[in-house]
Every structure is written in C-alpha cells, then in structure tokens.
Amino acid sequence: MSGANDHDPDRRPAEDAPPDPLGPLLEVIVSSAGLPAAEIARRVRDALPPAVAEVAESNRRLREATHQREALVAAAAAELRAAAGVLAEGDGRSGAAEVERLRRVADDLERALRGPRDLPSGERAAHGGGERPRVLVADDEDDARDALAMILQPEYDVTAVADGDTAVERVRAEHPDLVLMDLFMPRLDGLEALERIRADPATADIPVIFVSAGADDAVKARTFELGAVDYLQKPFSDRELRARVERTLRLARSQIALREMAQTDPLTGLANLRAFRARLEDELKRARRYRTPFTAVMADMDHLKPINDELGHAAGDQAIAAVAAVIRAELRETDFGARYGGDEFVILLPHTTADEGRVLADRICAKLKQTALDVAGRKVSLGASFGVACLPEDGTDMGADALVAAADTALYRAKRGGRGRVALAPSEHAGPREHA
C-alpha cells in the first residue's frame, strides 16, 4: 500500500512518458506559494485556459484512437459474417460447424464493442457459458481489498490476496481475466509482480491495472513500461473503477477475438499456417526438454481436382471443409490440427509415438472413406492419404523443417502406393511401412 516508499529516488522517469496535461498548471500553483492571494488568483487564471485546452485535446486524441479501434473491430466482424454467409449458401450440413464458428467469433467481436452492460440480460448470461469475468485483487491493506471486492462482486468473481508473491502464484494457477494490483506490498511489490507475470508466456497477456495512491510520475511511467494497461489513483469513485475495469475487459476480449481470427483458417476452422509454425516450435522445445515422443502427421486429400473440375471450386471448398471436420473430431485436447495449404493438413501429436500416430491416421482415413458429401444432389466421396513421422527415439536432434519434411515424404509414398492409405517415415530400427 502507499507510504514512505511512494517516492523512490531510484525510480527513473521514462524518457518517452506522456506529459501530464495539468503539469504546467500545477507548477504555477506550486511556484506561487507564499505570494499574495490576488497574485495567486491572477497566475491561476492565466494558466487555466491552456490547461483546460490541453486536457480537452488529450481526451479528443483518446476518443479518436478508441473510435479507430472500434471501427477496425466492427469491420472484422462484418467480414466474418459475410464469409459465414458465403459458406452457408453451400451444403449446410458439411459446413454448418464452420458457419456457426465464424458467426460466434463475429458475435464475440461485437460484444467486445458493446460491453456486457449493453447486452440483453439473457444474452449476457449466455455469453461465455454463463461465467462471469474473474478479477484478482492484490493489496496489502484489508480495508482496500474489501472495498474493491465489494464494488466489483455484483458483476465479477473476485479473488483477493495480500502480497505480490501470492498474486503471481494465483495468476499462474487461475489465469484471471484481469488483475488489480497495488504498487507497494510486502514480499514482492507490484512492479516486480508485474515483471514476473509478463515474463511467463502463459500469463503475459493478462491485463493488469495498478490501483494505488501517492506514486510519482516516474513510478507511474514505469508501470506502463512494464506492460500495465491502466493506472487508477486513489481515491477514486465506484463508478470510475467499474468503468476502467469494463473498458479493459472489453479491449481484452476484442484482442483475443482478433488474435483467434488471425490464427484461424476461415474455411476449415483449423489453425492456419502461421499458428502452426509457432505451435510446432513450442512443442518441439517441450519434447526435447522432457524427452517425450512427438509425432507429426501430414494429410493430403485424394481426387480433389475432379471435384473442382466437375462441380466447381465452391464444391471443392465444401469437400476441404468436410475433411477438416473429420480431422477435428478425432483430435484430443492436447493435439493440434492446421490447414497446411490448399487441400493439405498437418496434425501435431505431443506425447505420441509413431505407431500411435499411425493408429490415429488410420482411424481418420477409414472415417473419410465412410463419408460422402451431398453437393447439388450428387454424392461426392472423400478420401486422403497420410504420412507419419516422429522425433528420433535415440535422441538425435531433428529440426522443425526436417520433421515436417519426413512426414511429407511419407505422405507422398502413401500417394504412390495407391492413395487412401497411411505411410510411416523410416527410422533406424524399421524400414518404411504402409497401411491401406
């Protein structure tokens, strides 16, 4: 909490910290100390109009930036709805899941613009499965913690802790939607706690608002340098606190929705190539660190060209989406599926051996053979070939590109072997194996 440490001489002001619009007015008031009242009044009258104008300009810039962001989010939502409409014009059964997913993401973006208070009560309860946003409050003063909890509990699930160290532990364990943090706490102060939260990839994106009193401009600037999204200085009104919290959560929801949209292939609902590359590197590092098996499966549709030639590319897109739906239905929570490009797919299987990966690929291959797509009254058969590769069991280092290339080579061996089958990449202990 605030106290003698509020003005720490070791804290350095940020070179690019935004100027305080009321700073010149405050300097006039401070420099006028001891002067006659009439002189003080004259100086304040002279300084007040520029200060008010500066505050108005700062507010205008903030509103303009907010409007630009909201326009971007609204445009993204409209594009998603348009894409859903295009998909819905085709065969409704095969693309229903993808259409619904696009519309759901568009709904999330629009909710982020409106905020929970603007939604009808029924829709607000349905959003997020009925769960309320979770807020962690970290403050060493009992009264301050109780006051924050009392203000927020009607709309949020609030957890309160008394020091920065415990705050970091709870953030890592519970992943709250928002953290309200005091600056000066025992065991670990707010700045150090924020540094640890930002240093952990699993918690780096959780928004943190500092709620404190008496900090100087250098300390405030430091909170923003470390990644705080807002700073609320005590004392404040209940209304201001709720407005800041709602605004932060609304922005966080829009960022999550935009990030998901940027990492998702809109046709299939699977991850796109960019997201796949990032996930592949993470999974490889984890497999090497803990010496666990890790398998990649490449899949390529069979006979897509005749569908495109005879029925058109819209029918081909429906076939691609249908294959993706079968793949997605077979994945475990820890697995990762992506559209690699065109009619190619890739599946990442942590803690999975090559033989276990082959079993999954065999199952998907068999289900595709049993799946037929209805396009304009015609039954279109689906199928794909699969290649499976695993990190070497002897500990030999294999990079991301080499692992994908091994799975890709096995895939084309399956293609040459007659399509609609699974092939394993060779290892030092076994030759190439194929399964019809």
Structure description:
Residues 1-18, 115-130 and 428-432 have low confidence and may be disordered. A hairpin with a 2-residue loop joins strand 7 and strand 8 (344-350). With 436 residues, the protein is α/β, with parallel strands linked by helices. The strands form 3 sheets. The protein has a 6-stranded mixed beta sheet with strand order 7-8-6-11-12-13, with helices on both faces. It is elongated, with a radius of gyration of 28 Å. It has 14 helices and 13 strands. Helix 3 (92-114) crosses helix 12, helix 6 runs parallel beside helix 7 and helix 11 (304-311) packs antiparallel against helix 12 (313-330).
What fraction of residues sit in β-strands?
Answer: 5-15%
Structural class of the secondary elements?
A: alpha/beta
Mean pLDDT: 80
Rg calculated over all Cα atoms: 28 Å
Q: Please, how many helices?
A: 14
| Main pleated-sheet profile | 6 strands, mixed
Distance between the termini: 68 Å
Query: What would you call the shape?
Result: elongated
In total, how many beta strands? 13
Helix content: 40-55%
Which spans of ≥5 residues are poorly predicted at pLDDT below 50?
1-18, 115-130, 428-432
Which strand order does the major sheet show?
7-8-6-11-12-13
Question: What is the H/E order?
Answer: HHHHEHEHEHEHEHHEHHEEHEEEHEE
Task: Give descriptors for this structure.
436 residues, alpha/beta, 6-stranded mixed beta sheet, 5-stranded parallel beta sheet, 13 strands, 53% helix, elongated, disordered N terminus
